[in-house]
Design goal:
The chain has 13 helices and 6 strands. By secondary structure, it is an alpha/beta fold. It has 2 domains: about 200 residues, P-loop containing nucleotide triphosphate hydrolases (Rossmann fold, 3-Layer(aba) Sandwich); about 80 residues, no CATH class. A 6-stranded mixed sheet has the order 1-3-4-5-2-6, with helices on one face. Helix 2 packs across helix 4. The relative contact order is 0.16.
């Protein structure tokens, strides 16, 4: 695969397709504030001061269980960022890191180097503030201490070395570029990569309040097609469902609504007939089937 094919999205912001991503994530506002403010500050400091003063690499890490909204927030960030830039514009670039890792000896290192030190710089040479999203970054910044478990540990070393070298280079040469990395398993990330992270932001699984907000938002959105669901979204009994789902990842909380619609044939035919009892039964099935790895009940914040 050519490195250009690993860039899955190049989009200038603001863009209508990305306008609602930021608000679609239910999480404590402090999480969003920290992500946006740290990005704004890093761009300002890196443009005005040398790396030796700031020690900023332009790298943010969003970490937490799957389904907590890390990727969506990363995609929504440049849309929010645009309103604060000089020309009211920003750019999003998404990379598929999985395509960088090759079974051929030495190819992973070559691809990483070419992508991060040649191809990406060529895409951002206009100086437009840019967010480069590295989703599931553990696939390209593998902990070298664990490389002995890999099929080709020497290549893992070289690929991770290439990522680190590229980050060091971009820290001084691409001061208008911010890398936002997501990870479900920080234990798999190389320690030297983690030391280059400027800001690490935890995205926890939803607590009861967050699960309730996700359920309400989902039902309200569905009410555009099925108006009766707007009344269900206002039901005080919905909190009982949220209490059961607390600690389950936000994506699963949202999908519980559609899963509840197949509890009965009537609701499969007409989703407007959905009830709290249907939702409770669906939530019980989620609990019976087990929670995704890395989630637990009672987390204080929530995301989706």
């Amino acid at each position: 695969m050519d490195v250009a094919e690993m860039v899955t999205v190049i989009r200038e912001m603001p863009h209508p397709d990305y306008a609602n991503l930021w608000d679609s994530i239910v999480v404590d506002q402090s999480v969003k504030d920290r992500l946006l403010r740290s990005t704004l500050l890093a761009l300002r400091l890196r443009a005005a001061l040398p790396f030796e003063t700031t020690a900023l690499h332009g790298l943010t890490l969003l970490y937490g269980p799957p389904g907590t909204g890390k990727t969506t927030l990363g995609r929504g960030l440049p849309h929010q960022l645009a309103q604060f830039t000089k020309n009211r514009k920003a750019r999003l670039i998404e990379i598929n890191p999985h395509g960088l890792m090759s079974a051929e000896h030495g190819q992973s290192q070559r691809k990483v180097t070419e992508l991060l030190t040649e191809h990406i710089p060529s895409l951002v040479d206009d100086g437009l503030p840019t967010v480069v999203l590295l989703d599931e970054v553990e696939s390209m910044a593998v902990a070298r201490s664990e490389a002995s478990l890999a099929a080709n540990p020497a290549d893992v070393h070289r690929a991770t070395d290439a990522v680190l070298a590229a980050l060091d280079s971009s820290a001084t040469e691409l001061t208008h570029v911010m890398f936002v990395a997501t990870s479900n398993f920080t234990s798999a990330l190389d320690s030297a990569f983690q030391s280059r992270v400027d800001v690490a932001i935890h995205m926890p699984a939803p607590d009861t309040d967050a699960a309730l907000a996700i359920l309400k938002k989902t039902l309200e959105s569905m009410s555009t097609a099925f108006p009766a669901l707007a009344r269900l979204a206002k039901s005080s009994a919905l909190k009982r469902v949220a209490q059961k789902l607390a600690g389950t990842d936000g994506r699963r909380v949202r999908k519980t609504v559609s899963e509840a619609m197949i509890v009965r044939a009537d609701t499969a035919i007409d989703p407007a007939q959905l009830t709290v009892d249907d939702l409770l039964e669906a939530a019980a099935r989620v609990l019976k089937n087990g929670r995704p790895e890395g989630t637990k009940r009672g987390d204080r914040n929530g995301a989706n």
